[in-house]
Fold this sequence. Notes:
Elements: E1 2-6, E2 11-15, E3 21-30, E4 34-42, H1 51-66, E5 69-72, H2 75-83, H3 85-88
Parallel strand pairs: 4-5
Antiparallel strand pairs: 1-2, 2-3, 3-4
Amino acid sequence: MKIEHDEEASRFLAKNDEGKQLGLLEYIRAEGNELYATHTEVRPQHEGKGIASSLVDALVEYAEKTGATIVPMCPYVLARFRKNPEKYANVMKHRGE
């Protein structure tokens, strides 16, 4: 599996070796260098294989590289951030901050 960043479409795509899409994570870039993580989706037949986690990791890596903060709007991203707050403290921005 590989993760591709489609910056123009504001999303990360997980694809298998044949190029078939397995999942995606969409975000919105806002003023102040904020990334609103809005939607994470993995095809049902590929759930439970760590694909969504890899997509979140790619978003976090991108935020760290660009100095952005992430506002977790997507329930999956929010749950990951809440489960491991120390891991994401440097990129997580709470709504309303």
